[in-house]
Design a protein that fits this description.
The chain has 694 residues and is an alpha+beta fold. The strands form three sheets. Strands 2, 3, 4, 5, 6, 7, 8, 9, 10, 11 and 12 form an eleven-stranded antiparallel beta sheet that branches. Strands 1-14-13-19-20-21-18-17 form an eight-stranded antiparallel beta sheet. The chain contains 25 helices and 21 strands.
Length: 694
């Protein structure tokens, strides 16, 4: 076999390994859109102007998504994306999660301290600059260290030049690097939020299921110089009914997928990472249910945390179901075995690529030995309290401040530091009794799972974890924003001289935490990046970028069609109605989580019960897409993504458009509720661009 033929055969097998695209699969880069696919399959001509407008309408909302829906800085996202803010704005006397909120005038809009929204201004391919640091003979860890310095230098240089927050993102497992430039907005105010009971109607039982009947929306407004932001790029509201087969698009920030992972990486997730996560999340869920049972105020305090844990538990269990599918895993193993066999038959190919899978598999074995300790110490699972998060950030900000930018931990580089500081100084409500319960349980878990570490013996010894948690939380002064600011302003000396027990705890375990992180970055992450990049570079030679990279929490475009599907031999209609909402509530006796807020009961007679509420489409999505605007061919807003069905969860690894569906709130359902239930006529006028809006 000659070299040319052998390399082409290798690349062909790589495409088999990576699983060909299925139907409407793909979370596409905005600077590498699927123009040809859309033209060929859907007869849609995507123009650069259409795409740029959508990019500038799209918003990174924390770890999720949102969009501009008026020229006055009005932002729409999901209630479950904004509920942490809504919870923070609530009190025992005024629970906005329970009552909902509507600012009838601009003066009534509520400031949201600590909230940071980002709009992507541009993307630059910096692959040549990042890869230029590679030298023959460099170790994986040496390459990773040099790469980190190059990325930090690029971020700093571009940030100083543009005034934007600049972040270099690794794509295709390190085969490509893009620099993302964001405009950051920090003056954000709450405009509207429905009651939690309608936003999360159906609760955990209906989560990741369909049909759904949820009004999972809320509105915020961005201000600039104390005036509503002038946002020339915003989404106009749709005018025509959605029909089966309509082409729609989602623009959002999907968190992560694993479609390009090797077999050994999938094994690690299946056998180590996901089982740990499921056990940990179940433990936290049980704890918060027990705390909530103590009373109404405890229920209110724990609600947002509990909802997040329940969602994560159901999601990870769904991801795991894909990896427990023998067909999925056997197909992956077979394709990889055939590829490796082909590579080893050709000396040049064996030299270039023969050790790729072996090296990645070796890294997974090391990761398996590290994973639990890494989660408990470095990722804070053993110290589950907001106070420890503050303490660790204050300690590490002080420690990293004296280092060159490129040598700092990534989260404390110049490009990320302003966000960390805002988070630390945000005046977030903290409830000490709740923090004691969480910390005591996580310390108990730490003792159970990592009791042999000398640090654990120093911290806990023979004392009860509840006693230690109470002592730490009653003794810390980090609840006070001014105290946190003082530590930040006075740096390392203030941290090292501190008598605060939470600061001292963070200092005590920091050497171990850093050692675990360093081992992971050098022996696992660096090896995965180096070898994953080899596969990616080979892939580019044959197919270019016709296969999109795995999700990375950066802005992506996905597309699909409004489409019903078959489940257990039954056709599931593509949309639900308000009539279905009332019927489902009645079926369960109107009891939580199927209870309706009084506003819906009172105004039922005003509603058009045939109006659509939620709908599904084949758009490819994953966690992080929550809040993504859904638009039609004309670029008009027709819905907001808030969930996927149960069949969509294994799509983290393999997409199937026969049953995979993203779940959206229908644009007509939003208007129906705003007008008929909430009397939010000025808000609707603003959305529709009519005169007379405030």
């Amino acid at each position: 076999m000659n070299n040319s033929r052998g390399r082409w055969l290798l690349l062909g097998f790589i495409l088999v390994l990576l699983i060909p695209l299925q139907g409407d699969e793909g979370m596409w880069l905005f600077n590498m859109p699927p123009t040809n696919i859309l033209k060929t399959v859907h007869n849609f001509n995507m123009t650069p102007e259409w795409l740029e407008h959508l990019r500038l309408c799209s918003i990174l909302f924390g770890g999720a998504s949102g969009s501009f829906v008026s020229s006055e800085g009005l932002v729409l996202t999901n209630h479950h994306v904004g509920r942490g803010i809504i919870q923070n704005l609530s009190t025992k006397e005024k629970d906005l999660m329970k009552t909902g909120f509507y600012a009838r005038t601009r003066a009534d809009e509520l400031s949201c301290p600590g909230l940071e929204l980002a709009v992507l201004q541009g993307i630059e391919d910096v692959t040549p600059q990042v890869l230029a640091i590679e030298r023959p003979g460099m170790t994986s860890s040496g390459t990773a260290e040099a790469r980190a310095k190059a990325m930090a230098a690029l971020e700093k240089e571009r940030s100083e030049k543009t005034g934007y927050k600049c972040t270099v993102v690794s794509l295709y497992s390190g085969g490509m690097y893009h620099l993302y430039m964001y405009k950051i907005h920090t003056d954000v105010r709450l405009v509207f939020a429905p009651e939690y009971s309608i936003a999360k109607f159906g609760g955990d039982p209906d989560n990741f299921c369909y049909p759904r009947y949820a009004l999972d929306i809320c509105f915020f407004r961005i201000y600039e110089n104390d005036k509503p932001l002038k946002s020339p790029h915003y989404l106009r509201w749709g005018k025509e009914d959605l029909k089966e087969g309509d082409l729609v698009f989602a623009s959002g920030h999907p968190g992560s997928t694993g479609r390009l992972l090797t077999y050994s990486q999938l094994e690690f997730l299946r056998d180590v990472a996901y089982p740990f996560s499921i056990r940990n999340l179940q433990r936290r869920k049980d704890l918060l249910h027990s705390y909530s049972d103590l009373g109404a105020e405890e229920t209110r305090i724990a609600l947002t945390s509990l909802l997040g844990i329940e969602n994560s538990l159901k999601a990870v269990t769904g991801y795991q179901s894909g990896l427990l599918d023998n067909n999925l895993m056997s197909n992956k193993a077979k394709a990889e075995a055939e590829l490796r066999e082909t590579v080893m038959k050709e000396p040049d190919l064996a030299k270039a690529y023969g050790k790729v899978w072996e090296d990645i598999a070796g890294a997974q074995k090391k990761h398996a030995g590290l994973h639990k300790s890494l989660q408990l110490f470095e990722r804070n699972q053993g110290f589950n309290t907001a106070y420890f998060n503050y303490a660790r950030n204050l300690v590490r900000m002080a420690q990293e401040a004296g280092k060159p930018n490129g040598e700092r931990l990534k989260e404390y580089r110049d490009s990320n530091l302003p966000s960390v500081k805002r988070n630390v100084l945000s005046p977030t409500p903290i409830y000490d009794d709740f923090e004691i319960v969480k910390l005591a349980d996580s310390l108990a878990q730490l003792k159970e799972e990592a009791g042999d570490y000398i640090e654990v013996k120093w911290i806990i010894g023979n004392r009860s974890t509840e006693e230690i948690a109470r002592e730490l939380i009653s003794g810390t002064t980090l609840k006070d924003t001014e105290v946190r600011k003082n530590y930040m302003d006075n740096g390392l000396e203030a941290v090292y001289r501190s008598s605060d027990p939470m600061i001292k705890l963070a200092l005590m375990i920091d050497p171990l935490s850093r050692a675990l992180r360093s081992q992971f970055e050098n022996e696992v992450e660096a090896v995965e990046t180096e070898n994953g990049a080899l596969i990616a570079r080979a892939l580019f030679k044959l197919k270019g970028t016709s296969i999109p990279p795995d999700a990375t929490s950066t802005l992506r475009l996905s597309f699909g069609v409004v489409k019903s599907y078959i489940e257990n031999g039954k056709k599931i209609p593509f949309q639900t109605t308000f009539a279905g909402l009332f019927e489902r509530s009645k079926k369960f006796g109107g009891k939580p989580p199927f209870s309706l807020p009084q506003s819906f009961i009172t105004e039922k007679s005003r509603l058009d019960l045939s109006a659509p509420l939620d709908f599904v489409a084949t758009c490819d999505s994953i966690g992080g897409n929550s809040g993504s605007p859904i638009i039609n061919r004309k670029g008009e807003f027709v819905g907001i993504l808030f969930d996927g069905n149960m069949q969509s969860l294994p799509a983290r690894f393999v997409y199937d458009d026969e049953r995979n569906r993203s779940v959206m709130v229908h644009f007509q359902g939003i208007l129906e509720a705003l007008l008929k239930v909430y009397g939010a006529n000025p808000l609707v006028a603003e959305i529709l661009g009519k005169k007379g809006s405030p």
